[in-house]
TrEMBL record:
Keywords: Cell wall, Glycosidase, Hydrolase, Membrane, Peptidoglycan-anchor, Secreted, Signal, Transmembrane, Transmembrane helix
Domain (Gram-positive cocci surface proteins LPxTG): residue spans on this chain: 1211-1245
A GO MF label: hydrolase activity, acting on glycosyl bonds
Enzyme class label: hydrolase
Name of this protein: Beta-L-arabinobiosidase
Transmembrane found in the keyword field: yes
Membrane-crossing segments per the record: 1221-1240
EC code: 3.2.1.187
Gene3D superfamilies named among the record's database cross-references: AF1782-like, Designed single chain three-helix bundle, Galactose-binding domain-like, Single-stranded right-handed beta-helix, Pectin lyase-like
Signal sequence annotation: 1-19
């Protein structure tokens, strides 16, 4: 056939190149059917394979190192210029490519290979120095180990690698398959390569189609069987592109290497159509697409109109008036909606289904989220310039629970119960969740893949991701990497980064995630990966303010990323805000507020345990530019994340920082344990803030930052650092120990300033000094360190101050601190008195001390037990002061000092001690604590549940007050004694109990009795006793004596109840017995309706007879009902005579009778047949019908008789006894009388 289109084989997603074809009429296809044919052949998936294409080699760069698609790329970092195209030594044509030096490589990546398919890679190559230039043909990132074939011939030779593609895994997951020539070693000689090929390994050479036949041409060396069952074949029409149909092969033939598969020709339609055939060759998993045209039939096109729509939240149905020739598609429709009185806005159509039989289209869209106030939504659908609207209301409901079970779930389920759970994360990602919904993963199960749930909650109704069932936390693991357009990291732009998050939120709000384990098993492989891997990523772009994310009781581990500064955007929980890089008019300052992380464990993570990044970083105002221009300008004015809480978490074994509070405002970081941070990076600390306002770090334990076994010799390494660009930072009541970097750090510069950063009432034990004991830099204003206790144990050489500075750019204050040094100490940069004001400090173990401290003390501070702090913030009582400590009352009084010391002791006497502990006389709380323990044990006693509520309430209040006094370091002895007396008094009242359980059982039983069965004399005292029992039962403070008394009275009244006499059932028993013997065995003789009524009445009568408590009224009613049913029985009539007569009449030849008499007969015949078919007709009606039909038959008037009667009118005389008309009239009247009587009976019935 001439003019065939040529397509290249779909080897993966198999790209298709089409050429316009000419058409011809094929005689075997029937007259007038014009067809086009197309062919597919195997495609070389490598671009520019012959080097004759006139395309220069690409150059390797950091941005394309894992993305070398569409061309050959030269890699030659050691010897630039030695990987190149040359116009010499070609295998075919004029051009080849050459590599010549060690580590030279020529590389190309191939995307979208078909999983499970087998491919063959080949290249022609020659090596001018095989022994000296060790060179390989390489293949990697296909799903297996790297394959290599040595280029060992000095003459051109074809080298091949065959492989099955399964997809890159591990650290290479997401990468495209790479082919390359690589020089392992040597610098003498050249390797020339030419004529590359990468094709799917297939038995097929080509596939072609025309209407009625599909031809598969096999390779010349193919020896197997050629059969249609090796193909899965389907097709679509351009008139119904959404509907795929199976293409049935009706016959097949083999001629040489060609298999012809015949199918029924596709019929013509009123409009020309293109038929697209998809055939998958199953042995090689090879999909192929070919197509042909079918001309129009010439019939008139049918077009449909939109008649109306119906809508509900998330779905709209559009109704058409007829079935159009061309099936409607999604692009034919426009879907818009508006909320309340707002303007219409366009809604994306997610799913589109056309139902030809019902002539309607169903379109789904993202559900409109509910809110506190109802939303009235108007939906508008436009089709062919005709618009229709519908309305629905969205109200905030209680939410739906969706269950996910990896083992027993099915994605075809509705997901709304454990029994109908979904199975996969992909199914979860398809749903648009509504406020109040819950997504519950089954405990003990594991899922792999990126969870990207859709939707947002609202204030008061967040969407929850959690677990259900018993067992270990559900485990969610990452799937394949993906690439995003950019990230703003550390105020830099990283373009096209690869990311991998287990849970991703984008421009969403009001979510809670709890009770899950997020785990990346690639931790050991990824000490410095280029993929930004995270457990959870909250991301937002140009959307304004978003609110509320709560993360609770999560275990997150294994997620790593780059160890660079940019790598801080990888790790456990990462918040990322980005903005449009190309169009400033589309930028909207954006931040996410009210984020909390509580009760979680994060470990084995990358550059950050938790971090925030944003491009909205620029601080405005003169103070930020006082000494130098502001040094951290972003895309616009500072837009902080507000109200962040990090509480009661354990964060450990982090490559970089445990948590970075970056670009935030109003933050509390409390009661966390952070250890072994800064394991694999150059700079990091346990906790720090950057470019943030109003941050409080309190009650945290931070230790072993930059541990001894760290992979990199890290800088910084403190426990808690106040970094640059912060305002109003409080670091208080923290326990810092064994951190390699030092104790305190204010990390500022002239262009990166900070304000009001305060360390107070912290305890440091055995911290190191990589950055000095303190690191206090220029540019910080209002910074202070006061009332801290620093104990520096033996074994570490330290220097006091690192990064000292001068120039009058600081007003730092160091007051009321105790510093005890047991190791070697040097001043380092000295004490820098010109910048730091020292006052009322204790320095012990220093050869030099600050010269400007006018009240300096160098005596032993007399701690209770120094150096004994262990793990936990409560393990440092050894740093309390003894009674004769020189630190007592020796400090400066500082305003707004927090009001308490490290241990919670109030700072109330106006005399400040030096150090983190305010000395108080220890009270004797032994008796109080013993009573508290005893009281708690009574709560565990099984009888505690019966203590009357008023006593229980007072007892629990006294216990709570006693515990409060016990924990209060400032409590007086009088307060201790008072709490003891009150609690003891309430313990003595615990015998005031009232167990109402047995009374409740008796009352419930009594309330089930019915008055109708008992005499009035016995019922009255019973109701009085029941009323009194219910009153006591309702009194929650009733004592046991009252309960026992009313129970006994009620029991006595119940025992005294006298039953009424039983009903007389004798008449009913006799009637039932007669019915069972006379009528029930013969029900088949009665009409179905009357028989069914009788059966129901008989069954009801039997039930009454079996009921021991049946009343006389119930018995009499059953008797009457059954009697009426017996009267109403109707025998089935004998219809044989009527049936025989009907058959005879229907077989009669009526052509000889008058039209009038025949019509009369037919009318009666119809009624007779209706009676025959009526199951409820009785014998009278059957007999009447037979009589009427017989009379109508006998009354037929022959045509000749009618003529005679007519002629006799002319001669007959009045009074003539033999007048024909008289006899005829008499006969007709007789027939009419019979028929009329029959019709009257039928009408009455």
């Amino acid at each position: 056939m001439k003019g065939k289109m040529v397509k290249r084989l779909l080897a993966v997603g198999l790209s298709i190149a089409m050429a316009v074809t000419t058409f011809q009429t094929v005689g075997t296809s029937g007259p007038g059917i014009v067809q086009a044919a197309s062919t597919v052949t195997n495609e070389n998936l490598l671009k520019n394979p012959t080097f004759e294409e006139g395309v220069d080699l690409g150059t390797h760069s950091d941005s394309n190192q894992n993305n070398k698609i569409g061309n050959w790329f030269a890699y030659s970092t050691q010897n630039p210029g030695t990987v190149k195209k040359v116009q010499e030594n070609a295998h075919n044509g004029e051009w080849s490519a050459t590599v010549a030096k060690q580590n030279d490589a020529l590389e190309q990546d191939v995307p979208d290979l078909q999983k499970g398919a087998t491919y063959k890679l080949s290249v022609w190559a020659k090596n001018t120095n095989p022994s000296g230039l060790k060179t390989w043909l390489c293949l990697k990132w296909y799903g297996g180990s790297e394959k290599k074939v040595a280029i060992d011939s000095s003459e051109y030779k074809q080298y091949e690698i065959e492989f099955t593609y399964t997809g890159a895994t591990g650290t290479d997951a997401g990468k495209n398959t790479r082919v390359a020539i690589w020089v392992e070693r040597g610098n003498s000689g050249n390797v020339y390569v030419d004529d590359w090929s990468l094709q799917i390994s297939s038995d097929l050479k080509s596939l072609s189609v025309e209407n009625g036949a599909l031809k598969a041409e096999y390779n010349a060396d193919y020896q197997g069987e050629m059969k249609s069952s090796d193909f899965d074949i389907s097709y679509t029409s351009s008139l119904e592109p959404e509907v795929a149909k199976k293409l049935d092969i009706t016959s097949e033939t083999v001629n040489g290497k060609t298999l012809t598969m015949n199918f029924a020709e596709i019929a013509k339609q009123p409009m020309k159509q293109t038929i697209t055939v998809t055939a998958t060759y199953k042995p090689s998993k090879q999909p192929m697409v070919v197509d042909f045209d079918v001309d129009a039939s010439g019939e008139e096109l049918v077009e449909a109109n939109l008649t109306g729509i119906t809508a509900e939240n998330g779905s709209v149905t559009a109704n058409l008036d007829k079935v159009p020739t061309v099936a409607p598609v999604k692009d034919d429709f426009t879907l818009e909606y508006k909320v309340n009185d707002g303007a219409f806005e366009k809604a994306a159509i997610k799913e589109f289904t056309y139902n030809k039989d019902s002539k309607n289209v169903v379109m789904t869209f993202d559900k409109i989220s509910g809110a506190v106030d109802p939303k009235d939504v108007t939906v508008k659908v436009t089709y062919k310039d005709v618009a229709k609207t519908a309305e629905f209301r969205v109200e905030l409901g209680s939410g739906v629970k969706y269950y996910v079970d990896a083992t027993n779930g099915k994605d075809s389920n509705n997901g709304t119960s454990p029994e109908t759970a979904w199975q996969t994360i992909d199914r979860v990602n398809q749903e648009k969740f509504q406020p109040g919904d819950q997504i519950l993963f089954k405990a003990g199960e594991t899922w792999t893949g990126a969870l990207k749930p859709q939707g947002s909650g609202v204030d008061g109704a967040p969407i929850v991701i959690a677990s259900y069932g018993e067992g270990k936390k559900p485990i969610l693991m990452p799937g394949e990497d993906w690439t995003i357009s950019h990230m703003n990291i550390a105020n830099q732009v990283v373009r096209n980064p690869k990311v991998n998050n287990v849970i991703t939120f984008f421009n969403q709000e009001y979510w809670e995630v709890r009770d899950l384990e997020l785990y990346d098993s690639t931790y050991e492989q990824n000490t410095n990966t280029n993929v930004y891997r995270r457990g959870i990523n909250i991301s937002a772009e140009d959307v304004g303010d978003l609110s509320y994310f709560k993360f609770d009781n999560l275990t997150i581990h294994g997620f790593r990323g780059p160890i660079s500064n940019e790598g801080k955007s990888s790790g456990g929980i990462i918040m990322t805000v980005t903005t449009n890089l190309n169009d400033a008019s589309k930028r909207v300052p954006t931040a996410v507020h009210d984020i909390s992380v509580t009760n979680c464990e994060l470990y084995d993570l990358g550059r950050s345990g938790i971090n925030f990044v944003s491009p909205w970083t620029t601080r405005e105002g003169d103070k930020w530019n006082k000494y130098a221009p502001f040094g951290y300008a972003g895309k616009g004015a500072w837009k902080p994340y507000e109200r962040f809480t990090l509480s009661n978490n354990i964060i450990h074994d982090i490559d970089g920082d445990g948590t970075i509070v970056d670009g935030c405002k109003d933050v509390t970081v409390d009661h966390n344990t952070v250890y072994r941070a800064v394991y694999n990076c150059w700079y990091g600390v346990g906790l720090f803030n950057w470019n943030s306002d109003n941050v409080v770090f309190e009650y945290n334990e931070v230790y072993e930052s930059s541990p001894a076994d760290a992979l990199l010799g890290a800088g910084d390494g403190q426990g808690i650092e106040i970094d640059a660009l912060n305002q109003n930072t409080l670091v208080q009541y923290n326990y810092l120990h064994d951190n390699a970097g030092g104790v305190f750090m204010w990390c500022c510069t002239a262009s990166l300033r900070g304000f009001n950063g305060i360390y107070r009432y912290n305890i440091s034990q055995n911290d190191g000094a990589k950055h000095g004991v303190i690191d206090w830099r220029e540019g910080h204003e209002g910074s202070m360190a006061y009332n801290n206790t620093i104990y520096l144990g033996e074994g570490i050489d330290r220097e006091w101050l690192k990064n000292g500075y001068t120039g009058g750019k600081s007003d730092a204050k160091f007051y009321n601190n105790i510093v005890v040094n047991k190791g070697n100490m040097t001043p380092g940069k000295g004490f820098n008195e010109q910048e730091i004001d020292y006052e009322s400090n204790i320095f012990v173990g220093f050869d030099e001390v600050p010269s400007n401290d006018t009240t300096l003390i160098q005596e032993d501070p007399k701690f209770v037990a120094p150096g004994t702090g262990g793990k936990g913030i409560d393990s440092v009582k050894g740093y309390k002061l003894q009674a004769d400590s020189p630190a007592i009352d020796a400090g400066l009084n500082i305003e707004n000092n927090g009001g308490k010391d490290y241990f919670g002791t109030p700072l109330a006497d106006g005399k400040t001690d030096i150090g983190a502990a305010e000395y108080v006389v220890e009270l004797d709380k032994t008796a109080l604590n013993a009573l508290i323990e005893y009281a708690k044990s009574q709560q565990e006693n099984e009888n505690y549940q019966y203590v009357v509520p008023v006593v229980k309430e007072k007892f629990e209040a006294a216990l709570a007050e006693a515990e409060k006094v016990s924990a209060d370091n400032a409590a007086t002895q009088e307060a201790v004694d008072t709490a003891y007396d009150k609690l003891l008094d309430m313990v003595h009242h615990l015998e005031f109990t009232g167990n109402t359980s047995s009374l409740k059982v008796l009352v419930d039983a009594a309330k089930g009795l019915e008055e109708q069965f008992y005499t009035a004399e016995s019922w009255k005292p019973f109701t009085e006793a029941l009323k009194e029992a219910e009153a006591v039962l309702a009194d929650e403070n009733a004592l046991q004596e009252e309960i026992d008394a009313v129970r006994a009275a009620l029991k006595k009244a119940m025992d005294g109840l006298v039953k009424k006499p039983l009903a007389d059932k004798s008449k009913l028993e006799k009637l039932v017995k007669d019915s069972e013997t006379k009528y029930e065995p013969n029900l088949d003789k009665y009409t179905p309706a009357s028989g069914e009524s009788f059966k129901e009445a008989l069954d009801a009568a039997r039930s009454v007879l079996a009921d021991e408590n049946a009343t006389q009224k119930q018995v009499d009613s059953a008797y009457t009902t059954l009697q009426k049913a017996i009267f109403g029985l109707r025998l089935i009539p004998n219809k044989d005579a009527l049936e025989d007569l009907i058959n005879k009449v229907e077989s009669m030849d009526l052509s000889g009778y008058t039209t009038e008499s025949v019509q009369a007969l037919k009318n009666v015949l119809l009624e007779a047949k209706a009676v025959m078919e009526d199951p409820e007709a009785d014998q009278k009606e059957v007999d009447a019908a037979e009589k009427a039909l017989r009379a109508s038959r006998d009354g037929l008037v022959a045509v000749e008789d009618a003529k005679k009667a007519d002629s006799s009118k002319k001669v007959a005389k009045t009074g003539d006894a033999t007048s024909p008309i008289g006899w005829t009239l008499a006969g007709v009247l007789a027939v009419l009388a019979v028929v009329a009587a029959f019709f009257v009976r039928r009408k009455k019935r």
